[in-house]
Amino acid sequence: MDKKEFTISEVIDSIGISSHTWIVFVLLAFAMIFDGYDFMIVNSTNLFVAHTFWPDNANPGALMGSLTTWGLLGMVIGGAVGGIMSDKLGRKKTLIAAVMFYGLFTLPQAFANDLAFFAAFRLIAGFGVGSCIPVVTTVFSESMPSKQRGVFVTFGMAFMVVGWVLAGLIANPICNATTPLLGEFTNQVTYMTADGGTATMFANWRLCYLIGGIPLIYGIVLIFTMHETPHWYANSGNKAKACERLTQIEQATRHTSHTYDPNLLIVPPKPAKTGPAVLFSSKFIVATCAIWAAYFVGQFCVYGMNAWIPTWFVGLGYSATDSVALQTWNNVAAIASNIVVGFVSDKVGRKRNLAFSWLFCIVAIILCSIFVAPNNMMLCIALMLLFGFALNYAITAVQPLMPESYPTAIRNTGTSWCQAFARFGGSASSIVLGGIAGMAFFQTAAGTTNWSTVVLVLIIPFALGFVCTVLFVTETAGKSMDQLAAEEEKLGASESDGNVRFIAMLVIVAILAVLCIVCPLVVDNWSKQPYALPLMAIGLLLPFAYFFVFGGKQLAKNKKLRA
């Protein structure tokens, strides 16, 4: 390549899987493990936190669901801001800041005695968690060979689920310990039970949040071990630094002293704009509709169910210990699915794989609803393994599409804003499902929640995910990042006409937040109001109406341009 032009993707593809590949993989894997732990520790401890905050309320409902919501709302903000920071300041700086941020602000949650204090620091810590995930996805996509990119992106996401599993494995024995593990700090709590009686526990859940401060140390490790990606250097105008980094990667792999000439490096042109509004321009609106719709569905279902799985099984008569264990088995299956989905995605293509995954989810949720039963732990473990595999297969199948849908200059902005929007689905889901659970239609004759009926509601978002995948997803498997950028350029669509569509989406997000998050928390007996379910349905379905209108219109135009 000394005398001919080249691209960064060509060099990385020519080097193939190398020691550099595995170093990046390990560094990002640990970041995702800590990230996953920080998120899931709330779902693994929420029963115990609820007993501490509301000892006189045997069924906190939406309040308990909101314990998950605050972190997700922080992730929304962090994802939106962190994505822009990453494209402006670099992947390395943003990732280090994110990891240390959520480690630092998880610690104060251990000292919370009420929802306000807990929610405030959960929101702040969520900012770091939300910034971390899209940066990791972007670095994977920019560092891995094109043919194996899907495998590494999805395999890397599996380590977030490893963090989920660790949260369950750590929280279960700590929270259920029959003695105070940290003296008066983990004080005894007397709380009301569903049958009107009382019980006692120790607030050992606080220790789980002290453990959540470990990422502070890992952030220091990243300062000395992680490198910036050549793609980011080149797109930021520093071709010399990009070529220097390529030389370092090749030397570490082939032990050669090859030097790349910055004057021969081809860098795809930047979009006319680089803010979030460009994601809604004619050039990118179809891709945005595809990944936003699919990831919204995945987040709604994954985070909603993870928040309520322990409660579901407690309602069936399982102990709190067994219920958290079943949630953990659900997440164990997620690790396996995250590993498998990347291989399948690279083999059969992104679109086919994702479309199949939504149909798989529909089958899995129906089986879980029909066959889950009390006093049959082995059957429930099998069902949770099936459900965890199916649902996490679907949400992870979206992951490779995110960075592949946008050029380098807006790649992390696009990835992070997609994840930020989807987290509104996750933020709303724990509250919406909690609100639905309190409605008369979903109650048993004894007045308790029939969670096996509640989970069938998930068929609706699964079906919407399938339809949006079939309509909007464009195949990207096996193509280099430069090829994908070149294909977008051929259509010649505008990059500067997205402002109105962007504002329209912000309005829809605000409506969703009010109807599905604010109202359930501030309106007394919201779930008992006859208008509650229709309003929440409107809030959740409005984004899909947007996708079908704007995405469908541009899709028709693109087909004419290609004809």
UniProtKB/TrEMBL annotation:
PROSITE patterns membership: MFS, SUGAR_TRANSPORT_1
SUPFAM superfamilies linked to this entry: MFS general substrate transporter
Subcellular location per the Swiss-Prot or TrEMBL entry: Cell membrane
Transmembrane regions listed in the UniProt entry: 21-42, 62-82, 94-111, 117-140, 152-171, 203-224, 284-305, 325-344, 356-373, 379-399, 420-442, 454-473, 502-523, 535-552
Domain Major facilitator superfamily (MFS) profile: 24-477
Membrane topology value: Multi-pass membrane protein
Main location: membrane
Top-level division of the source organism's lineage: Bacteria
Gene3D superfamilies: MFS general substrate transporter like domains
Swiss-Prot/TrEMBL keywords: Membrane, Transmembrane, Transmembrane helix
The keyword Nucleotide-binding belongs to this UniProt entry's keyword annotation: no
Protein name, entry field: MFS transporter
Species per Swiss-Prot/TrEMBL record: Raoultibacter timonensis
The organism's taxonomic lineage, starting at the top: Bacteria, Bacillati, Actinomycetota, Coriobacteriia, Eggerthellales
